[in-house]
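Please fill in the sequence for the structure shown.

STRUCTURE ENCODING:
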Protein backbone atom coordinates (compact mmCIF):
# COMPACT_ATOMS: atom_id res chain seq x y z
CA UNK A 1 0.00 0.00 0.00
CA UNK A 2 1.28 3.48 -0.86
CA UNK A 3 2.44 5.57 2.08
CA UNK A 4 -0.04 8.39 1.40
CA UNK A 5 -2.98 5.97 1.56
CA UNK A 6 -1.61 4.24 4.65
CA UNK A 7 -1.32 7.65 6.34
CA UNK A 8 -4.97 8.38 5.58
CA UNK A 9 -6.08 5.03 7.01
CA UNK A 10 -4.03 5.79 10.12
CA UNK A 11 -5.90 9.09 10.45
CA UNK A 12 -9.19 7.19 10.35
CA UNK A 13 -8.06 4.91 13.19
CA UNK A 14 -9.26 7.26 15.93
CA UNK A 15 -7.88 7.18 19.48
CA UNK A 16 -10.51 6.53 22.21
CA UNK A 17 -10.32 9.29 24.85
CA UNK A 18 -13.43 8.51 26.90
CA UNK A 19 -16.95 7.13 26.68
CA UNK A 20 -18.12 7.67 23.07
CA UNK A 21 -15.28 10.15 22.57
CA UNK A 22 -12.42 9.89 20.09
CA UNK A 23 -9.44 11.92 18.89
CA UNK A 24 -8.09 12.22 15.36
CA UNK A 25 -5.06 13.81 13.74
CA UNK A 26 -4.96 15.88 10.56
CA UNK A 27 -2.99 16.15 7.35
CA UNK A 28 -2.04 19.52 5.87
CA UNK A 29 -2.93 19.55 2.17
CA UNK A 30 -1.64 23.09 1.72
CA UNK A 31 -4.96 24.92 2.02
CA UNK A 32 -4.31 26.49 5.41
CA UNK A 33 -7.16 24.50 6.98
CA UNK A 34 -8.27 20.90 7.47
CA UNK A 35 -9.76 19.29 4.34
CA UNK A 36 -13.49 18.80 4.93
CA UNK A 37 -13.47 15.25 3.56
CA UNK A 38 -11.06 14.22 6.30
CA UNK A 39 -13.45 15.43 9.02
CA UNK A 40 -16.34 13.66 7.30
CA UNK A 41 -14.43 10.37 7.24
CA UNK A 42 -13.30 10.61 10.84
CA UNK A 43 -16.80 11.52 12.06
CA UNK A 44 -18.22 8.46 10.29
CA UNK A 45 -15.66 6.29 12.08
CA UNK A 46 -16.54 7.85 15.45
CA UNK A 47 -20.28 7.27 14.92
CA UNK A 48 -19.77 3.72 13.59
CA UNK A 49 -17.72 2.82 16.67
CA UNK A 50 -20.91 3.13 18.74
CA UNK A 51 -23.13 0.98 16.50
CA UNK A 52 -23.21 -2.81 16.08
CA UNK A 53 -24.81 -4.94 13.34
CA UNK A 54 -25.95 -1.90 11.34
CA UNK A 55 -24.40 0.03 8.46
CA UNK A 56 -24.45 3.77 7.85
CA UNK A 57 -26.86 4.71 5.05
CA UNK A 58 -27.05 8.50 5.32
CA UNK A 59 -25.31 11.50 6.84
CA UNK A 60 -26.00 15.21 7.09
CA UNK A 61 -23.15 17.48 8.15
CA UNK A 62 -22.42 21.16 8.74
CA UNK A 63 -18.99 22.78 8.63
CA UNK A 64 -18.91 25.47 11.34
CA UNK A 65 -15.30 26.66 11.56
CA UNK A 66 -12.07 26.11 9.68
CA UNK A 67 -10.05 23.28 11.24
CA UNK A 68 -6.46 23.80 12.41
CA UNK A 69 -4.15 21.22 10.82
CA UNK A 70 -1.68 21.52 13.72
CA UNK A 71 -4.15 20.55 16.44
CA UNK A 72 -5.98 17.25 17.08
CA UNK A 73 -9.73 17.02 16.55
CA UNK A 74 -11.95 15.55 19.27
CA UNK A 75 -15.17 13.77 18.26
CA UNK A 76 -18.03 13.44 20.76
CA UNK A 77 -20.80 10.98 19.86
CA UNK A 78 -24.36 11.15 21.16
CA UNK A 79 -26.44 7.97 20.93
CA UNK A 80 -29.70 9.63 19.94
CA UNK A 81 -31.77 6.49 19.32
CA UNK A 82 -31.51 2.75 18.73
CA UNK A 83 -34.71 1.44 17.17
CA UNK A 84 -35.70 -1.92 15.75
CA UNK A 85 -34.26 -1.20 12.31
CA UNK A 86 -32.48 2.15 12.56
CA UNK A 87 -29.96 3.83 14.83
CA UNK A 88 -29.25 7.57 14.92
CA UNK A 89 -26.04 9.22 16.06
CA UNK A 90 -24.98 12.85 16.46
CA UNK A 91 -21.29 13.74 16.30
CA UNK A 92 -19.66 17.06 17.23
CA UNK A 93 -16.03 17.72 16.26
CA UNK A 94 -14.15 20.15 18.49
CA UNK A 95 -10.86 22.01 18.49
CA UNK A 96 -9.83 24.25 21.39
CA UNK A 97 -13.18 23.39 23.02
CA UNK A 98 -15.12 24.97 20.13
CA UNK A 99 -17.29 23.02 17.66
CA UNK A 100 -15.95 23.07 14.10
CA UNK A 101 -18.28 20.44 12.60
CA UNK A 102 -21.54 18.61 13.33
CA UNK A 103 -22.82 15.35 11.85
CA UNK A 104 -26.11 13.46 12.06
CA UNK A 105 -25.85 9.88 10.81
CA UNK A 106 -28.40 7.09 10.39
CA UNK A 107 -27.64 3.36 10.44
CA UNK A 108 -29.89 0.51 9.26
CA UNK A 109 -30.02 -3.24 9.50
CA UNK A 110 -29.67 -4.93 6.09
CA UNK A 111 -33.09 -5.32 4.44
CA UNK A 112 -34.51 -6.27 1.04
CA UNK A 113 -37.05 -4.05 -0.75
CA UNK A 114 -37.97 -2.18 -3.92
CA UNK A 115 -35.16 -1.50 -6.41
CA UNK A 116 -34.71 1.17 -9.08
CA UNK A 117 -32.06 3.74 -10.03
CA UNK A 118 -31.22 6.47 -12.54
CA UNK A 119 -29.11 5.79 -15.62
CA UNK A 120 -25.35 6.22 -15.55
CA UNK A 121 -24.11 9.01 -17.89
CA UNK A 122 -22.37 7.84 -21.06
CA UNK A 123 -18.79 9.10 -20.81
CA UNK A 124 -15.33 7.78 -21.76
CA UNK A 125 -13.72 5.33 -19.35
CA UNK A 126 -10.74 6.25 -17.16
CA UNK A 127 -8.04 4.36 -19.09
CA UNK A 128 -7.04 7.16 -21.49
CA UNK A 129 -7.57 10.07 -19.09
CA UNK A 130 -4.85 11.86 -17.14
CA UNK A 131 -4.98 12.21 -13.38
CA UNK A 132 -5.72 15.60 -11.84
CA UNK A 133 -2.16 15.81 -10.50
CA UNK A 134 -0.62 15.06 -13.90
CA UNK A 135 -2.85 17.63 -15.59
CA UNK A 136 -2.13 20.36 -13.05
CA UNK A 137 1.62 19.80 -13.31
CA UNK A 138 1.44 20.08 -17.09
CA UNK A 139 -0.43 23.41 -16.73
CA UNK A 140 2.08 25.08 -14.41
CA UNK A 141 2.12 28.25 -16.51
CA UNK A 142 -1.70 28.42 -16.51
CA UNK A 143 -2.44 27.85 -12.82
CA UNK A 144 -1.88 30.02 -9.79
CA UNK A 145 1.43 29.78 -7.98
CA UNK A 146 -0.35 28.79 -4.77
CA UNK A 147 -2.31 26.05 -6.54
CA UNK A 148 0.85 24.53 -7.96
CA UNK A 149 2.91 24.85 -4.78
CA UNK A 150 0.15 23.27 -2.69
CA UNK A 151 -0.24 20.28 -5.00
CA UNK A 152 1.09 17.33 -3.00
CA UNK A 153 3.47 14.83 -4.51
CA UNK A 154 0.90 12.10 -4.09
CA UNK A 155 -2.70 11.67 -2.98
CA UNK A 156 -4.66 8.74 -1.53
CA UNK A 157 -7.44 9.16 -4.12
CA UNK A 158 -6.80 9.40 -7.85
CA UNK A 159 -9.12 11.73 -9.78
CA UNK A 160 -9.41 11.59 -13.58
CA UNK A 161 -11.68 14.25 -15.04
CA UNK A 162 -13.57 13.53 -18.24
CA UNK A 163 -13.96 17.25 -19.02
CA UNK A 164 -10.60 19.02 -19.52
CA UNK A 165 -9.18 20.83 -16.50
CA UNK A 166 -8.74 24.56 -17.24
CA UNK A 167 -6.22 26.96 -15.66
CA UNK A 168 -6.54 30.54 -14.46
CA UNK A 169 -9.10 31.93 -16.96
CA UNK A 170 -11.64 29.21 -17.75
CA UNK A 171 -14.43 29.79 -20.27
CA UNK A 172 -18.02 29.70 -19.10
CA UNK A 173 -19.25 26.10 -19.17
CA UNK A 174 -22.36 24.18 -18.14
CA UNK A 175 -22.31 23.24 -14.41
CA UNK A 176 -21.70 19.53 -15.04
CA UNK A 177 -18.58 17.43 -14.41
CA UNK A 178 -17.69 13.74 -14.63
CA UNK A 179 -14.69 12.35 -12.78
CA UNK A 180 -13.41 8.80 -12.36
CA UNK A 181 -12.06 8.10 -8.88
CA UNK A 182 -10.45 5.26 -6.93
CA UNK A 183 -7.83 4.77 -4.25
CA UNK A 184 -4.21 4.52 -5.38
CA UNK A 185 -3.87 1.02 -3.90
CA UNK A 186 -5.96 -1.98 -2.89
CA UNK A 187 -8.02 -1.55 0.27
CA UNK A 188 -9.03 -3.85 3.15
CA UNK A 189 -12.45 -5.52 2.86
CA UNK A 190 -14.08 -3.50 5.67
CA UNK A 191 -17.18 -1.81 4.05
CA UNK A 192 -17.07 1.04 6.59
CA UNK A 193 -13.58 2.06 5.46
CA UNK A 194 -14.77 2.16 1.84
CA UNK A 195 -17.67 4.43 2.85
CA UNK A 196 -15.36 6.69 4.88
CA UNK A 197 -13.02 7.09 1.93
CA UNK A 198 -15.88 7.77 -0.47
CA UNK A 199 -17.09 10.51 1.88
CA UNK A 200 -13.49 11.80 1.96
CA UNK A 201 -13.39 11.86 -1.85
CA UNK A 202 -16.86 13.37 -2.27
CA UNK A 203 -15.83 16.76 -0.88
CA UNK A 204 -13.48 17.31 -3.84
CA UNK A 205 -14.45 19.32 -6.93
CA UNK A 206 -18.00 20.34 -6.01
CA UNK A 207 -17.09 24.02 -5.68
CA UNK A 208 -15.66 24.13 -9.21
CA UNK A 209 -18.82 22.57 -10.64
CA UNK A 210 -20.92 25.42 -9.20
CA UNK A 211 -18.46 28.02 -10.56
CA UNK A 212 -18.26 26.76 -14.15
CA UNK A 213 -21.18 28.83 -15.53
CA UNK A 214 -19.41 31.99 -14.31
CA UNK A 215 -16.00 31.45 -15.88
CA UNK A 216 -14.34 31.20 -12.46
CA UNK A 217 -12.57 28.41 -10.59
CA UNK A 218 -10.83 27.92 -7.27
CA UNK A 219 -7.49 29.07 -8.73
CA UNK A 220 -8.68 32.66 -8.36
CA UNK A 221 -7.04 34.44 -5.41
CA UNK A 222 -10.00 36.85 -5.24
CA UNK A 223 -12.47 34.06 -4.51
CA UNK A 224 -13.52 33.02 -1.02
CA UNK A 225 -14.92 29.48 -0.99
CA UNK A 226 -15.72 26.98 1.72
CA UNK A 227 -18.01 23.98 2.27
CA UNK A 228 -21.09 24.91 4.33
CA UNK A 229 -22.90 21.58 4.59
CA UNK A 230 -22.70 18.09 3.14
CA UNK A 231 -25.23 15.27 2.82
CA UNK A 232 -24.61 11.74 1.58
CA UNK A 233 -26.62 8.59 1.03
CA UNK A 234 -25.16 5.10 0.55
CA UNK A 235 -27.41 2.99 -1.65
CA UNK A 236 -25.49 -0.21 -2.45
CA UNK A 237 -22.23 -2.00 -1.69
CA UNK A 238 -19.10 -0.93 -3.56
CA UNK A 239 -15.31 -0.90 -3.43
CA UNK A 240 -13.45 2.40 -3.66
CA UNK A 241 -10.31 0.64 -4.88
CA UNK A 242 -12.22 -0.01 -8.13
CA UNK A 243 -13.11 2.82 -10.54
CA UNK A 244 -16.24 4.82 -9.68
CA UNK A 245 -17.72 7.58 -11.83
CA UNK A 246 -18.48 10.75 -9.87
CA UNK A 247 -21.12 12.68 -11.85
CA UNK A 248 -21.91 16.15 -10.44
CA UNK A 249 -24.14 19.04 -11.47
CA UNK A 250 -25.03 22.39 -9.92
CA UNK A 251 -28.67 23.39 -10.45
CA UNK A 252 -28.41 26.71 -8.59
CA UNK A 253 -26.14 29.44 -7.22
CA UNK A 254 -27.51 32.44 -5.32
CA UNK A 255 -26.88 34.66 -2.29
CA UNK A 256 -23.14 33.80 -2.30
CA UNK A 257 -23.94 30.07 -2.09
CA UNK A 258 -23.58 27.35 -4.70
CA UNK A 259 -25.54 24.10 -4.56
CA UNK A 260 -24.07 20.95 -6.13
CA UNK A 261 -25.27 17.33 -6.16
CA UNK A 262 -23.59 14.16 -7.34
CA UNK A 263 -23.96 10.44 -7.98
CA UNK A 264 -21.39 7.64 -7.80
CA UNK A 265 -21.62 4.76 -10.28
CA UNK A 266 -19.59 1.56 -10.69
CA UNK A 267 -18.05 0.69 -14.06
CA UNK A 268 -21.09 -1.45 -14.92
CA UNK A 269 -23.57 1.36 -14.15
CA UNK A 270 -24.68 0.54 -10.60
CA UNK A 271 -25.62 3.62 -8.56
CA UNK A 272 -23.91 3.17 -5.17
CA UNK A 273 -24.11 6.58 -3.48
CA UNK A 274 -25.44 10.12 -3.85
CA UNK A 275 -24.24 13.40 -2.39
CA UNK A 276 -25.35 17.03 -2.08
CA UNK A 277 -23.42 20.05 -0.87
CA UNK A 278 -23.85 23.78 -0.45
CA UNK A 279 -20.71 25.92 -0.60
CA UNK A 280 -19.84 29.53 0.12
CA UNK A 281 -18.68 31.29 -3.07
CA UNK A 282 -18.06 35.05 -2.88
CA UNK A 283 -15.53 37.62 -3.98
CA UNK A 284 -13.23 38.70 -1.18
CA UNK A 285 -13.66 42.25 0.10
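FILLED IN BY: designer on duty
SEQUENCE:
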Amino acid sequence: MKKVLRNLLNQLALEPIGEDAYRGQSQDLGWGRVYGGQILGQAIVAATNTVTDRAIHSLHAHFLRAGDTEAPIDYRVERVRDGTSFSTRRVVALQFDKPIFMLAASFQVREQGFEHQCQMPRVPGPENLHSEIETTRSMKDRTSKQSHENLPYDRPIEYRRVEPLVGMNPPKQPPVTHTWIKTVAEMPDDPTIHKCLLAYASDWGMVDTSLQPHGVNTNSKSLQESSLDHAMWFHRDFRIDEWLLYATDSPSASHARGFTRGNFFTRDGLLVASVAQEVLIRWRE
